UniProtKB/TrEMBL annotation:
<comment type="pathway">
    <text>Amine and polyamine biosynthesis; ectoine biosynthesis; L-ectoine from L-aspartate 4-semialdehyde: step 1/3.</text>
</comment>
<keyword id="KW-0663">Pyridoxal phosphate</keyword>
<dbReference type="InterPro" id="IPR049704">
    <property type="entry name" value="Aminotrans_3_PPA_site"/>
</dbReference>
<dbReference type="GO" id="GO:0030170">
    <property type="term" value="F:pyridoxal phosphate binding"/>
</dbReference>
<dbReference type="InterPro" id="IPR005814">
    <property type="entry name" value="Aminotrans_3"/>
</dbReference>
<comment type="similarity">
    <text>Belongs to the class-III pyridoxal-phosphate-dependent aminotransferase family.</text>
</comment>
<dbReference type="InterPro" id="IPR004637">
    <property type="entry name" value="Dat"/>
</dbReference>
<dbReference type="Pfam" id="PF00202">
    <property type="entry name" value="Aminotran_3"/>
</dbReference>
<keyword id="KW-0808">Transferase</keyword>
<keyword id="KW-0032">Aminotransferase</keyword>
<dbReference type="InterPro" id="IPR015424">
    <property type="entry name" value="PyrdxlP-dep_Trfase"/>
</dbReference>
<dbReference type="GO" id="GO:0045303">
    <property type="term" value="F:diaminobutyrate-2-oxoglutarate transaminase activity"/>
</dbReference>
<dbReference type="InterPro" id="IPR015421">
    <property type="entry name" value="PyrdxlP-dep_Trfase_major"/>
</dbReference>
<protein>
    <recommendedName>
        <fullName>Diaminobutyrate--2-oxoglutarate transaminase</fullName>
        <ecNumber>2.6.1.76</ecNumber>
    </recommendedName>
</protein>
<dbReference type="InterPro" id="IPR015422">
    <property type="entry name" value="PyrdxlP-dep_Trfase_small"/>
</dbReference>
Length: 470
């Protein structure tokens, strides 16, 4: 089956092998664990990819709005990334060096520090962790515990920080935390969620109440909260449903933590490297955290995770935090190339402009579909929350989340050649994370396909649209 498309960056047609693709999927279901996630809702067998286009083993082509959960800032197989990898391979440089100094690592840290907020760039330290963001979160928590001598942690409802130990303890998903044995003494605080405000007010008032509660818990000698080692937050909650933290609220969290000697950790694993319209999401509010947790796009599509932090916190002894694969030379080369390309081409500004256009069109779509409860995001980190219009609203007027509808929309989008992810408290938020290199034509194609998928999922007449639609 040969498929073509007029979307820029498309691949040349190939003959698909449906039988082969189905056999691979069957073997995956037989061999891989029940913990697999994306493979369940996205039964695609990618064989080639370039830019925003993914080609399956069956010959179908898709626009990828998942981008490796935000890892692919430049899309699939960007030329500058491939060239950086080839240079390392052709040079004969070692690929596995633990934490030894290399020219490749030196180049990466130089590129990284050129982008950091000035106080961290001038007086910061970097620690290379294991290959995943959760490893960096673990390192950040361990760092602040060592530096402060305290064990507690402040985290927020809706948070997602990884799947291991302390990182899992800071995660808001109670089901995910159920298997954790150790008590890491996490105090959970309400995150400002304008659409479903825990205080029933929303807006600036809800954010202010969240800040006041935080300060009160820390200052009340009978409040039951001991002084923590750190506060850990996401400038924009991703898995929690694409919920941007209000700028003023972030500044209040910085004031509260600084006044009480509590290190502030910003988890920029998904928001970093231009995703939200500024190079780092904290830049929008002017907040400079004590620790920044970085992964995903910082490795240029390859596994890499680091923390950057104030030098005053650098009190741990040699070997206090290690990891066999913290010396990934290919990832460092790809990461440096990605960081410089984003910066030199102002792709963070491009993300802001394209994201604003997409948000505007999605809000226009919401005006004609009551099932769209909220549209929100920053830059090219966008969420569309779907609600059940047949149900009764809660005490604050919000309708229940429509998880089943969101799942149908995801499947209808896939039928139309669009890969999207779900998130939020009840997996009822359609998440869009396109690469920062998305073209205007691709952005329109994404919005058109999503609108068609929403209509089809609601039971309206299905348009005759295939995966090859431009």
């Amino acid at each position: 089956m040969a498929v073509t498309s007029s979307v820029p960056g498309q691949l040349a047609p190939i003959d698909g092998d449906i039988t082969g693709a189905e056999a691979i999927l069957r073997r995956q279901a037989q061999r891989e664990s029940s913990a697999r996630t994306y493979a369940r809702s996205l039964p695609v067998v990618p064989v080639r990819a370039r830019g925003m286009t993914v080609e399956g083993a069956d010959g179908r082509r898709y626009l990828d709005c998942l981008s490796g959960a935000g890892t692919l800032a430049l899309g699939h197989n960007h030329p500058v990334v491939l060239e950086a990898i080839r240079r390392v391979l052709d040079s004969g440089a070692p690929l596995h060096v633990l934490d030894l100094a290399t020219p490749v690592k030196d180049d990466f840290t130089t590129a990284l520090f050129e982008t950091l907020p000035a106080p961290l760039a001038e007086h910061g330290r970097v620690q290379f962790c294991g290959p995943a963001g959760t490893d960096a979160v673990e390192a950040a928590i361990k760092l602040t515990r060592t530096a402060t001598g305290r064990a507690g942690l402040l985290a927020f409802s809706g948070a997602y920080h990884g799947m291991t130990s302390a990182a899992l303890a800071a995660t808001g998903d109670t089901d995910a935390r159920a298997a954790m044995a150790a008590d890491t003494r996490v105090t959970r605080l309400p995150f400002p969620y304008d659409y479903r405000c825990p205080f029933g007010t929303g807006g600036d008032r809800g954010a202010e109440l969240s800040a006041r509660l935080t300060a009160n818990l820390l200052d009340d000698p009978k409040g039951g909260v001991q002084r923590p080692a750190a506060m850990l937050l996401e400038p924009v909650q991703g898995e929690g449903g694409v919920i941007p933290a209000p700028d003023e609220w972030l500044r209040r969290m910085r004031e509260i933590t600084r006044a009480r000697g509590i290190p502030l950790i910003a988890d920029e694993v998904q928001t970093g490297v231009g995703r939200t319209g500024t190079f780092w999401a904290v830049e929008r509010s002017g907040v400079v955290p004590d620790v920044m947790v970085l992964s995903k796009a910082v490795g240029g599509s390859l596994p890499l995770a680091v923390i950057v932090y104030r030098e005053e916190l650098d009190t741990w002894h040699p070997g206090a935090h290690a990891g066999t694969f913290r010396g990934n030379q290919l990832a460092m080369a790809a990461g440096a190339a990605t960081i410089r390309f984003v910066r030199q081409n102002a792709l963070h500004e491009r993300a802001e402009a394209v994201g604003a256009h997409m948000l505007s069109r999605l809000r226009g779509l919401a005006a004609h579909h009551a099932c769209i409860g909220d549209v929100r995001g920053r830059g090219l980190m966008i969420g569309v929350e779907l609600v059940d219009t047949a149900a009764q609203p809660d005490d604050y007027g919000a309708l229940p989340a429509a998880s089943a509808l969101a799942a149908r929309v995801q499947q209808e989008a896939l039928r139309r050649g669009l890969i999207v992810e779900l998130g939020g408290r009840h997996s009822a938020v359609i998440r869009l994370l396109p690469p920062l290199t998305i073209t205007d034509e691709q952005a329109e194609a994404v919005l058109d396909r999503l609108a068609d998928a929403l209509q089809a999922a609601q039971g309206a007449a299905q348009p005759a649209v295939g995966a090859s639609r431009p």
